[in-house]
Amino acid sequence: MATLKDISNLEDIKLMVNTFYDNVRKDDLLGPIFNDKLQDRWSEHLEKMYGFWQTILFDVRAYSGSPFPPHKQLPVDKTHFDRWIQIFNTTIDKQFSGTITEEAKMRATNMAFMFNHKIEYFRNPENQ
Ligand code: HEM
């Protein structure tokens, strides 16, 4: 099998993000949640995610938002975050390999864990 290259530039990030969200859209658990929320704003979302990953992986100031708030009210729990990570890791492992690729998977896993933790926290009436 040919050796896969590492994620190295914006083109790689676009490929990673586009393929990941193509797979997410086809997924019966996650697809409807994204489609309901984004409707005709998919291209805007993808552009935002190119910037987000550039900032995370290459330290480029392309994204300056707050990642968590848009997730706070979504109808999701640990099952959804586990699926998100499963699709992310499978997608990325088919296309890339190397240090930055491992960094991307680690950062995504940490954020999924943190988002889920915060959602559970805010769902508890005592913490609202
Ligand atoms: C169950 C898993 C997830 C679901 C269903 C989900 C869904 C969404 C949706 C629907 C949006 C668009 C919100 C809007 O524009 O109205 C969004 C934005 C975003 N998501 Fe997720 N997401 C999930 C997990 C993650 C994870 C693990 C990360 C981090 C790697 C992430 C990073 C982001 C970022 C950076 C944005 C853009 C936030 C902004 O508007 O500045 N998401 N997500």
TrEMBL record:
One of its GO terms (molecular function) is metal ion binding. Coiled coil: none annotated. The keyword Signal does not apply. Keywords: Heme, Iron, Metal-binding, Transport. The keyword Metal-binding applies. InterPro entries: Globin-like_sf, Globin/Proto, Hemoglobin_trunc. It comes from the Bacteria. Heme binds at H71, H117. This is Group III truncated hemoglobin.
